[in-house]
Amino acid sequence: MTGRPVSSIVFLLLDQFTLMSLASAVEPLRMANQLSGQELYRWHTASADGNPVWASDGVPITPDGSILSAPSADIVIVCGGVGIQATVTGELVKWLRGQARYSKRLGGICTGSWVLARAGLLDGYECSVHWEWLAAMQEAFPRVTLSTSLFTLDRDRLTSSGGTAPLDMMLHLIGRDHGHELAAAISDMFVYERIRNEQDHQRVPLKHMLGTQQPKLQDIVALMEANLEEPIDLDELAAYVALSRRQLERMFQKYLHCSPSRYYLRLRLIRARQLLKQTPISIVELAVLCGFVSTPHFSKCYREYFGVPPSDERSVMDSERSIVLKPVIRASPAPMPMNVMEQARGEATFASVKNLKP
């Protein structure tokens, strides 16, 4: 041991948090300790009351303790997932604000950014969140700058979208603290071909379908997505990418199997459904925000596309939010077989990276 200061992190687990995102954030820390042969990072898990919480895949997780018993840490990271709005309580908001007053660095992974924003701790900051929640956060928190980046580091706030994006964020932090060689070695251990950075953006579903092909089609869809409240005329869209309207229609039919107007309508309805499920915005306001000329027209289009009127879907969501999830309480957690650093010493790669940044 060289006497390097240990960075400590508390992961706050909320009900229905995404287990994959948590693992993507924690595993790089474990591997940093193993490869360096030093305890560079120490982590602690907490829930609001110390009781087990459900991950979004149905796995019950027993944390190390409650937020009130959590040790002092350099960074507090909120781990969100499904149904994030229902997990925000006055107690959590008060505790997080207290951490901010003590100048702690605060972070959120997956939908954890929502909780920080709800506590007023992202006002004036730029942040990342899973793309599915971008629209809802833009409406709910106008003082927060939303980014489509995989992760965002803005002063003392670090936020990441879901899936494997927390892995990139933590590798970036490790590289900044202890050098690129260690971060690269961790990436190799996880068979992770490239460490992505803040300039990498979340992929929208269209890009998954088309890859790097058809850049004009992607440009038009990006324009559509950015102009849902006031839809752009199809002739203007075609002119923007130097196509005729007929060429535009053929392109949509060939690659997206529908007309441009139908695709535009689909985008507006999908956003409307996200806002309907994730915000308390009235159906009248929703219709305006998503570019419909009247509420009856919106309701008709919504019912034809999703099979139910928006009023019925809102009623179902309200009833689901009233259900309180009860975590499984185990008498006592299984004992950890050995300290994680002691376990790391038995690995062949222990202390294999020596050239850490001073």
- As laid out across the biggest beta sheet, the strand order is 5-2-1-6-7-11-10
The SS-based structural class is alpha/beta
Helix content: 40-55%
CATH class of the largest domain: Alpha Beta
End-to-end gap: 14 Å
Order of secondary-structure elements:
EHEEEEEHEHEHEEEHHHHHHHHHHH
Low-confidence stretches: 320-337
Please report which band the strand proportion falls in: under 5%, 5-15%, 15-25%, 25-35%, 35-45% or over 45%.
Answer: 5-15%
Q: List the domain count as a whole number.
A: 2
Tell me the total number of β-strands.
Answer: 11
What form results from the Cα inertia axes?
globular
CATH architecture of the largest domain: 3-Layer(aba) Sandwich
Q: Average pLDDT value? A: 85
From the 3D structure, determine the CATH topology of the largest domain.
Rossmann fold
Cα-based radius of gyration, to the nearest Å: 23 Å
- Separate helix tally: 15
The CATH superfamily of the largest domain appears as Class I glutamine amidotransferase (GATase) domain
Characterize the quaternary organization of these chains. Answer: single chain
Q: Main β-sheet: number of strands, strand sense, barrel status? A: 7 strands, mixed
